[in-house]
Each structure stands twice: as C-alpha cells, then as structure tokens.
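User: I'm putting together a teaching handout on how multi-component assemblies are represented. Below are the sequence lines for each component of a complex, exactly as they appear in our records. Could you produce the 3D structure of the whole assembly as structure tokens, so the students can see both representations side by side? Please keep the chain order the same as the input.
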Amino acid sequence: MKYFPLIWRNLLRRKVRTIFTLASVFIAFVLYSFLMVVQNAFSMGVEVAGVDRLVLMHKVSLIQLLPVSYADRIRGTEGVTHVGHSTWFGGMYQDKATQFAVMAVDPAYFQLYPEARIQQEQLQAWLADRQGVIVGRTTATRYGWKIGDKIPIQATIWQPKQGNTWFFNVDGIYDADRGFDTSNFFFHYEYLDENRRGAYGQVGWYVLRIDDPSHAADVAARLDAQFANSSAETKTSTEKAFLQGFVNQVGNIKAIIISILAAVLFTLFLLVLANTMAQSVSERTNELAVLKTLGFSNGLVLGLVLVESILMALLGGGLGLAITYFAVEGGSFNNALLPVFIMRSRDIALGIALCCALGVVAGAFPAITAMRLRITDALRRT
Amino acid sequence: MIRRWLSQTLAVSALSVRTIPQRASSSAVAMIGIAGVVIVFVAVLSIGEGFWAAMADASAPDRAIVMRTGADSEMTSGLPGPEVQVIEQAPGLLRVNNRPIASAELYVLVDLNKRSTGTAANVPLRGIGAEALEVRNEAHIVDGRMFQFGTNEAIVGRGANRQFSGVDLGSEFMSGNLRLRVVGIFESNGSVGETEIWCDSHLIQGVYERGNSYQSVLAKLDSPAAFDTFKNWLTTNPQLNVQVQREGDYYAQQSQVMSSLIRGIGYTIAVLMGVGAVFGAILTMYTAVSTRTREIATLRALGFNTASVLISVLAESLALAAIGGLLGGLTAYFAFNGYQTSTMNFQTFSQVAFAFRVTRTLMIQGVSYALMMGLVGGLMPAIKAARLPIATALRQL
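Assistant: Of course. Below is the structure of the complete assembly, with chains in the same order as your input.
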C-alpha cells in the first residue's frame, strides 16, 4: 500500500493519455454490460424457471390445442399438486401487434406462480370480474394503465362473436423479483371461450406443479403415457427445458455475443491498455533504473507496473460496469422489444475478473521489460 | 498562392503518412481498433440484412395474399372453404384457360431437430393447392420430383433440408399422426419459402382436423396494377371477411420485429464501439504528434503554414482509418458473407433459414464510419500540432 502514491503519480504523469485510455476501457465495459443484458434477455427467463413446474403441450407443436377436459385427468395424476392452463391470445393494441404476451388463463393460474406478487384484494377483484385482467408492472407503466382502466385489444387469432375487439378491465397489477417477466397480460379463459367463434373447450398448454422436483421425469412420462394414442397426444417437459427450447430456436445467441465481446475486449481494451503501458514504461526507463539503484527488487518493479495496469483496468472497467448497472436498474432499457432486462451479480463478478485478468495481460510485457532492465544499460541510454 | 499552399499541404501530409511505419505499434492500435469496429458493425448488420432479404425475396409484385380480417400472419388466419371459392372468382386474378391461378393454403408447424444443435425447432409445413407452383413461378425442384397430390408425399425447401435433420430426399418423417415422405428438394431464390416443407393441403386438413378450411389464399394477379381491383372487390364483398395485402407488404410486416431488433442491437454496439475506437485513435494521434514535435516545429520554422500541419495530422489519421476500415470490411466479407443459419421469427414462432449478407452498401457504410472515426479522432491532436509554439517545441528537445 505504501507504494500507492508512486503508482498514482505515474498515472497522472500524462493526464491526456491516462484519460483516453480509461475512456476506452470504460466504453469496452459499457459494451460488455450491454451484451450481457442482451444475452440475459434472449435467455427468456431460463435461469429463473421453477424447478417444480412442468409444461404439458400438444405433441405436434405448441400451436396445436388441447382439450380443457385434460385438466381433471392431470390433476388426478400421482405427483401433481396444482394444475393451470394458458392459451395464447396475441392480439393488437393501438394498431400494432402487442409487445406483451396476452394470455387467457384459468383462475388457479397464479397459484402456480408464487413469483408474481399481487395484492390479495386485487386478485379477488380479478377472480370476481369476468372481463378482468391482471397485467405486469412493466406493461402497466409503459402504457400508463391504472386499476379500473378499460383496455381494448383487437383480435388476431380469436375473433369475438361480435365485432373485432375485446375489452378488458384492469383489476390488478403484479410485481415480481428481478428476472421474472413482468410484461404479461392475463385474462380469464372463461371469457375467451364463451365469446370466441369456435375452438370451444380448447386450451393452449398446461402448467403444473409437482410435489418433488426430483420426480419430474417420472411424472412427465406418466402424463404422456396417459394421453398416448388419444386424438391429442402430449409432450411434457420441465419449465426450464420448455424455455430452453425457445432459446435454442432463436439460435446460438451465446456464440454471437462471445464473438462480439472478444472483438470489443481485444480492440478497445487489451490493445489500448497494452500500448499505453508500453509507452509509459519506455518513457520511464530512466526512473525505473534509478528505483532499482535505490534497491527496489526486480519483483517489486514488476509488481508496480502490473498494479498500475490493473488499476487502470479496474478504474475504467468498474465505472463502465457501474454505470450500465444503474441504467439497467433504473429501467432505461425497459421499452425495448425483449421483456426481461437484468444484469446478474454473476455478470458483474465476471466483469471484474475480466478487468483484472486483462489488466495483467496488458501489463505483462512492459512489466517484464521493466523487471529485466539492467541498471547500467538503462542509465547509459540517456 | 493557392498552388503553393496546396503543394505545402500535400508535401507535409505525404511526409506524415509515409512515416507511419516508424510509429507502427501505436498506429496499429488505432488501425486495429477501427478495423474491429467495422468487422462487428458489418457482421451484425449482415445478419439483419440476410434475414430481411430472405423475407423480401419471397415476394413478387404481382402476387397478393388473402387472409381473414384481423389476422396478423398466416398462422392466425382462417378461411372457410366456401369463402375460398368466392375469392377465386375475384376480378384481377390471373386466369389460364378459365382456371384461377391461386393457391389456397394451410400453414402449420412441425417439430424437427436442428442439425447444428440437435434441438427441436418449429419448421413450417405448408399445405398447397394444385396451382401453387404456377403462382410461385420462382420455385423449382432441384433434386427428385414434385409430390403427387392425393398422396402423403412432400417436397422440402433447400434451407430446411440444410438446417434440419430427418428431411433428406427419400426419407420419411412423422409429425403426430401425419407421415410424410420426402420426394423432392426445391429452391426459391434463397427466400423464406425454402425453410418450408410443402405437401397437399387436403392432407393437413385431414390430419389437423381442419375440415374444409384454409388459412390463406396466395393469388397471382393479371398485373401488379390489378391489385386495387382485386382488393376492392374482395374487401367490399359482404360474403367475405377478409383482408388483402401485397405479398411484399406482408413479408415486410412479418420481418419487422426481428429486423428492427437486430438493427437496434447492431447500431447500439456499433456506436458504442465507435466511440471507444475514437478514443484509441486520439491516443494514437497524440502520440504521433508528440513523437514528431521536433519535426513539426522545424517545418513550421521553415515557413510551412499551420493549415498544412493541421491537415497532415488529419491525413495520417484518415489514412489509418481507411486502412482499418477496408481491412475490417474485407474480413467481415470473407468471414461472414453467405454464412448459413436459421432463427425463429418472433411473429410466427416459426423457423427462417437465411444466409448472412455482407452487401456493398454495408461495406460502404462500414468504411465511411471508419473515416468518420478517423476524422473525429484526428481533430484534437491536429489542432494541438497546428498550435505548437515553435520556440518552446524546439527548445524542449
């Protein structure tokens, strides 16, 4: 620690150079954070999927419907504790395809998702109101909806018996912990089924909770066996696997993100910092020789240069991480197309580790040069 | 006067550009930094470009798609058989020997595994009518033969065949109770149609319990100008509850969410990286100016004007940026152009196979962006060089 003033002075020696190096490193880590946020958004909540929840869908594909009568048979299956179902509605709001998921669900649906927090009286109001809807905080804030508002949604898949528009009353707004999608729009399946023109008694998919996550595979196999050879065969998977399926469909986002990240870190971070450190050491050849003359060991000189490099990396990178973190927390990204925008603590830890590692790599070559410096050669050179 | 000024400027600029190799390591920082930005910029946007092209190439100006009112895609549409018969009477529709050139179609999804990951993907299965290949005259069989109507044969698009397993020529695959045999592979301009599997529409009606109903009618018009006649007749007909779109508009709308998502992310990354690269360029140019302090001061002392010094620094910075930009653009072109992949279109949950497209416009945009970075990066150091007080600068050394 006692060498800190020395390192600090070295940073301030060429202020312009230090400032622009820090700025470059800073931008590199703003980008790192942005890329992590994008990757998290594309992972669609796989990380927070409930381990005790299964999704049961039509074997052919998600767009095929299942009979509502399956609910009782699923409930009677060993290991299943709660059952709910959901039907994709789609729809248009303000003449654009809805940017939030609109789904028709049964009254028990919220029991399956304890992550969604709703005030008890709001939930009761929703249960009592056939045209009621519970929306997530993100969507409610985005469109300025309040409890009691009437929301018109134009039909895309499900035409109402009259006209082309469905009307809903906002009865509740749900919140949730970070990472859980709070953009959804849930209304009553009963209301849908009574007013649509056909496909009566059909639902999209079932969500169920089981007593013990370790039995998930058994329960899934039991359920699918039950509906085998019927007109609507099923495919049951854990919620995590179900969501992962979607992620895989989009493509290898992770590979793309990692490639971009590699380019960013190499060009904006490693190259710039390494060059700055090399210049800084070569300018200071003289001084380093003097330090050595005064009795500084080779190891200490190596350490001083490395610490200087790491310090710059952490200053610039840390600031980049911090600013993006607060921007994400403050909701600056929430108007974008993907519902969940978060930075996990894991991303931040990895970011800091990357800063240190790249700081070492960038400083390594100049530090070794400094360490190997022979006093006589160095002093003679000037 | 002007000629002397020009020749001075040229001479000093040539000097700074020629001496770049002497400052190789610091020049490399700016050059590689800018090249990196251009690679990422061009590569990310080539994804959007490829996706958009796959959708755009699926359409022809003389084709229209008819769906139920309010449907936002074929997937969510539904047309009863009797309505289809009415649609086929519409004026403006091309007729050959009194036969309407229109195809009533169904569009469903089947699960196939992606070759690259082995994971399930929603591949579109299209049930087509007998006139389908006359409507889409760009589609043609490249391997095997066309399927026979009334059988469980199917043809598979080149893109679907490339991206998903189990649909090779001669193979059979099951989806629920539907068993299909692949008898041909088709191409259609590399468009989204090539991600699809085509079979007889009646086959899907049966297996998917659709009765006598369809989802869309793709119609070939007498000419692109006949669209309005066609549309007005259909939308004012009280027997029908339909909307009519030009095929191009339909596909543009289908690709909108995905394209704007890719563009939004791509431009954000490019702008941020660009700012970072400008900082790198500023560093490089400051270094260049400070190592050449004595040289610049000498030139000024000899009577070279300030403008020529300023421009020479900018010229050096622009030269570095141009090399970096070209390097980046070419690398992106050779590394990514034509790269085959597939993704899920958020609007229909179905797969779209496409190839990355590094277009000439993208390359030009990339290089222009590089030059802009060079200009901005060189500006401050150039001003510093021009303002260098000659006496102090010479005394300093």
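A couple of points students might notice: Chain B touches chain A through 62 residues (CB under 8 Å). DSSP finds twelve helices and 17 strands in chain B.
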